[in-house]
Please model this.
Amino acid sequence: DSGVTQTPKHLITATGQRVTLRCSPRSGDLSVYWYQQSLDQGLQFLIQYYNGEERAKGNILERFSAQQFPDLHSELNLSSLELGDSALYFCASSVGSGHTYEQYFGPGTRLTVT
Amino acid sequence: GENVEQHPSTLSVQEGDSAVIKCTYSDSASNYFPWYKQELGKGPQLIIDIRSNVGEKKDQRIAVTLNKTAKHFSLHITETQPEDSAVYFCAASIGNQGGKLIFGQGTELSVKP
Model:
């Protein structure tokens, strides 16, 4: 158990809908990262927040947005869902914001868009 | 662009043998290289990492080597056990982009008893 929690574990929804995925980092960690894992794209970095502020951005679609709240939990919002958005979404956390801090992953949320 | 290539995509070994997974990266500013193990239905688990000021790091049966000149790094697992069976991912940091990591495509390791 990494100490990173994610809810829900599974999510099934229809195309065009909007969903929110939630992540709580390990105690003491200030950075939260979101990743998408699909069979054809592998593990893709989406976005990083550090202490409430956006720190780094990957190839995150405009239909996706994230935020980190004062209690350091984070939410990833996915809107106008398409079949291709079906994937595993992982959250990770680290103590600092730089690129040499170990990132610890949560158990993931499996999103299925029908 | 930024890229990490990982080989092989699948690897099957007998219990007790060694396993080696290799990765190459493109960003010369990369200086942090973690390895993750992912078991079915679980999130990636950090198993070892190496930073660019070190050429080799070992933790019990697992070792990682780094060659910055050639831009490649490798994971070595000795005395493999069935519980080592999983998908292994290498990753590389991207310079000046926070904690952004680029991951390889993964290696599915199967250890046969």
Notes: Chain A has a mean pLDDT of 95. The two ends of chain A are 31 Å apart (CA to CA).
